[in-house]
Amino acid sequence: MGRTLRFYVRRNLMTSIGLCVLAVFVLTAILAPWIAPYPGDAAGLVHPAHQLLPPSWQHPMGTDELGRDLFSLVLLGSRVSLGGGFVTIVFALLIGVTLGLIAGYAGGWLDEAIMRFTDIVLGFPSLLLAVAIAATLGPSLDHAVLAMALSWWPWYTRLIRSQVLSLRNADFVQAARLSGRSPARILVRHILPNAVTPVVVQASMDLGSVILTLAGLSFLGLGAQPPTPEWGLIIANGQNYVLTNWWYVTFPGLAILLAVSALNLVGDGLNDVLNRRERGVL
Amino acid sequence: MLHFFVRRVLLGVLVLIGLSVLTFIITRVAPGDPAALWVGPRASVAQIERATVTLGLNRPLPVQYAIYMDDLAHGNLGLSIETHRPVSSEIASYLPASLELVVSGIVIAILLGLPLGVLAAMRPGGVFDAVARLLAVLSVSVPTFWLAFLLQIVFFKDLGLLPLAGRVSNLVIALDPITRITGFMTVDSLLQGNWVAFFSALRHLVLPAVTIAAYPFGLIVRMVRASLLDVIALDHVRLLRALGQKRYTIAFRYALKNALPPTLTVIALTFAYSLTGTFLVESVFNWPGLGNYTAQAVITNNYPAVMGVTIVIGVIYVVLNLVVDLVIAGIDPRVRYV
Amino acid sequence: MRWRRLAAVLLAGAGLVGLSACGSSGSTGSATTKTAVGVYASYTQVMVFWDPSDSYSNEIIAMPQMYETLLRYDPKTDKFLPDLATSYSKSQDGLTWTFHLRHNVHFHDGSLMTSQNVKDSIERTMQRGNGAAYIWDAVKSIATPSKYTVVFNLSTPSPIDFAAASPYAAWIFNTAPLKQHGQNWYAKGHEDGTGPYELQSWSSGQPLVLKAFKGYWGGWKGDHYTKLIFETVGSSSTRAQMLQSGQLTFTDFLPYQQIEALKKDANLRVTVTPAWQNLMAFFNTKVAPLNNVLVRKALSEAFPYQEVITSVMHGYASQSRGPIPAGLWGHDPSLPQYHYNLAGAKSLLQQAGIKPGSLNLTLTYTAGDDNESAAAALYKASLAQIGVNLTARPMPWVSQWNLAKATNPSQRQDIFMMYWWPDYANPYSFLYNLFHTESTVNFNLAYYYNSSFDKLIDQANTDSGINRGQAVKLYDQAQTMLYQDAPAIFIFDEQHVRVIPKSLKGYYDNPAYTNVVFWYDVTP
């Protein structure tokens, strides 16, 4: 029993660490324009005289090939990277939840059509779909976000549909229906609030993966475009200097690693709280 | 069982049809005139007009779709806009390199992840468990392309242990060339007894394979650990413990067997996932695989190539999913009714 | 149990193949002593088009090893060197050109090269009309009066010697295999030229490997590379590293920062040669206020030329004088140019009636080009000082170009930044493509339509087939016209910077053949 207790404490400890790191990142993202020592560098200013300087007090993460302060770029990049991930998830939720609500409530052929379509989109890897869409629409951060959202929503459709199915015949829904409310009103007012929690939890767990994929798209040149400071893009720009100027790719990469790790730790914790199962101990 | 089987296969076919429609639409609505791309940046208007006819772009859309589907059915993925060569033969030329990489990566992930997951599950909450879990979280959170750079800095630049990039050294290409049999250089060189080439190929494989292994490794550790913990909670396992069986014996012999199906599913799925993961890694290691091909195609607006890769990976993905579903259903009859 | 059996099988297999390996390694060992391997790493795909008629891309680095042209052009001495033709002459009117071919030259399949092959090659290239085939547009007919004599009859005077030395659309190849295997035979990855190296192995994604062609007319006495590897290495950091560790003999492109680092390496040396490539920024002369020449002059004076050259190009460029770049015939270092002068720019804007802060401009450049991006950023900073707000937009080339071709001129960009380079040694390529009146927008992205300019350059082009001195004079006048009308900022003429191993001897950077190493001419 003592061991089980310790297990939960440690698990919560990791979750707490994750939460703290996450809080730092969110704060940084919000305050970036005020904390960044050279905010102009992220808007396209260049200082050719300060090319590729190693980390120092002036430039804690060094400078890039155009003399821009990497610390400022990484700080301001947190807005783009974290914000981009967040917007993606929100879009995916909008599509996924809407379709899931309709499918679950309407049933019949509409349900079948929506769910088979969902299966089709789920049927191929999200990065591939995102690459295909982003390559077609042309490279930009907005397109990458759209492409990611278009490949991510089916998970939420499935989740919300199963929730709706279990709620469809609940007493309060029956009551609302008998009192003559429109289906749309019933869905939004009565079913959605009761069905949304697991989906939101799932979405927060996905945030890390989405940010990672978004950085990957930018790395491939399909996401953010210069001079937008985006972590994946900074690494892509820095790849020519990997072996000669180590700091260039190291710090933005560390930022991604820390942010995504924190998100995953928190996600794990959330998952534990929601699906606490009896676990054995040998 | 038959009903389940038919349903799964039909779904797979449906996905593939959806995929083909999607790729057709994408190639046709793509901005930029394909004919203009075909003749290159410096073409005259007359050259573009000729290309429009050559590529059949002057025909009505339904006819184009019919031709496209007919070609697909015959394994013809169209012509690369960049090289004017068949996309299918180019993919056939690049695919083995990726498969060799992904297979090696998955093998590494299993060899490291499986025992680590088991050991972690033996003492949940212990130091070892904490380390394993942290490693697992880090390895699914690390941007693979960044990990690739990190490994290059450490193992090539700092330690000088492993080659920086490429699939085999140039001296081997010039003096001890490997004849292509399977397309897996390590296997082919072994089959031909070409030891110089084999060791060169093996040394070149290490860093990219380890990079590819990171994500599946993290998933496997988590999956093995979680499913073992579930299994251990079951009564018959508790009984074994009560009967005085050694903990390691229980973990590796009895519990792991029960935890294997979900782990296998994860491994199969990460295989397909890793195939797209190569998009981000191969260019860093200059690995002449599908990922490098796609990255190049994306940059040059080579839609037929991007769509060809989409279809090929889509098919692999669908087939793998199908096989996994059927195998799992064979092992665990309950799945069929879900 | 099963595992043990598998291991046994594997071991036995290894033993067997191990034996055969010993057998073969002896022969490889003896070959090693004589084999000199040249490795060329390109930043992009090498063999894009295999067909020598269509070749119009990066395969230029490998084609001259497998194929040859009638002549080779040396811009430094402005002379044509014999290649497959040993001498040539032209008629007074510039309409008849006679080439005398080298005797006893063989294709890689062993057949003899004759005047019929030259005729067949060029006629096929003209008939296919792909890539740079237009260089033969003036040719009316090709005659073969004898086995080793080829005569080009032209419809208008044209410098056919330049076409005959072009790195695109001028290769002499054997058309016999096409009759047997079909017109696609070359495109599938075959070759049959007369060059010093022949194909050993290639497939897409794999390096191109060439080996010495034993029957080459030049013979193989003395030191030569006998094997060549052309591979694609996307990362410049990797190419630099390979160069330092001796795994590479040559690479086509390195960022300037890396060149600075490599300069310190005792085993490497750096060569700098003017490249026939320049960066320009075209004004949209069809919209206000850029339709006012005063504004265009002001914007030309506000460009920080020297800063861009020193800090972006690390000094490996020179400020342009008109569109014809340094190193190409027709370039005139005495032509006028604009200088960085913010005060002058300010007063010009005032004259044009433009108040500070009221002018907003959009500049498009090709996404992914670091030099363009940095130059645009510096220009933006400079313009900000005179109250002009510039938005620099990176776009993929196709989108950038499509925007420039939008039907409504006011929807197009204000300033279009791009490079230009000629297909072969001809200044007309710059002046015609970039500034000649066009009925539909193609590359005249300043939308500059001036009939007297058109007349000048068309006349110059005809003259260049008869009297080059006269042509240069006319080109000078045309370029002065461009200076006065300022339809574009002529930013800089680039230089090729090569970092090569000191052991590579005899390398000569010929801008007429961009990025090409003539491997037969260099020694290991």
Structure write-up:
Chain A is mostly helical and 282 residues long. Chain A has a single domain (29-265), classed as MetI-like (MetI-like fold, Orthogonal Bundle). Chain A is built from 10 helices and no strands. The mean pLDDT of chain A is 85. In chain B, helix 5 (87-122) packs antiparallel against helix 6 (127-141), helix 10 (195-232) packs across helix 12 (247-281) and helix 12 packs antiparallel against helix 14. The two termini of chain B are 12 Å apart. By secondary structure, chain C is α+β, with helices and mostly antiparallel strands. A 6-stranded mixed β-sheet of chain C has the order 13-17-12-16-14-15. A 5-stranded mixed β-sheet of chain C has the order 8-9-10-1-11, with no helix packed on it. Chain C contains 15 helices and 17 strands. The model of chain C is unreliable at 1-33 (pLDDT under 50). The longest helix of chain C has 33 residues, at 2-34. Chain C has 2 domains: 2-250 and 502-521, D-Maltodextrin-Binding Protein, domain 2; 274-496, Dipeptide-binding Protein, Domain 3 (Dipeptide-binding Protein, domain 3), CATH 3.10.105.10. At the A-C interface, loops of A face helix 6, helix 7, helix 9 and helix 11 of C.
Using only CA atoms, what is the Rg of chain B? 24 Å
What string, H for helix and E for strand, traces the elements of chain A in order? HHHHHHHHHH
Morphology call of chain A = elongated
- Binned, the helix content of chain A reads over 70%
Structural class of chain B: mainly alpha
Largest sheet of chain B: none
Cα-atom radius of gyration of chain A: 22 Å
Which chain pair has the greatest contact? A-B, 58 and 75 residues
The whole-number mean of residue pLDDT values of chain A reads 85
Task: Determine and state the CATH class of one domain in chain B.
Answer: Mainly Alpha
Distance between the termini of chain B: 12 Å
Which percent range describes the beta-strand content of chain A? Answer: under 5%
Query: How does the major sheet of chain A shape up?
Result: none
Amount of helix of chain B: over 70%
How is the secondary structure organized here?
The complex is a heterotrimer of chains A (282), B (338) and C (524).
Chain A: H1 2-35, H2 70-106, H3 108-122, H4 126-137, H5 141-152, H6 154-167, H7 171-178, H8 183-219, H9 231-238, H10 247-274
Helix pairs in contact in A: 1-2, 1-10, 2-3, 2-5, 2-6, 2-8, 2-10, 3-6, 4-5, 5-8, 6-8, 7-8, 8-9, 8-10, 9-10
Chain B: H1 2-29, H2 34-39, H3 45-54, H4 61-73, H5 87-122, H6 127-141, H7 144-158, H8 170-175, H9 185-191, H10 195-232, H11 235-242, H12 247-281, H13 290-299, H14 303-331
Chain C: H1 2-34, E1 37-42, H2 63-66, E2 71-74, E3 79-82, E4 85-90, E5 96-101, H3 115-128, E6 139-146, E7 149-154, H4 160-164, H5 176-181, E8 197-201, E9 208-212, E10 227-232, H6 236-244, E11 250-251, H7 256-262, E12 268-283, H8 293-301, H9 305-312, E13 317-319, H10 342-351, E14 359-366, H11 370-384, E15 388-395, H12 397-404, E16 415-420, H13 428-435, H14 451-464, H15 468-485, E17 488-501
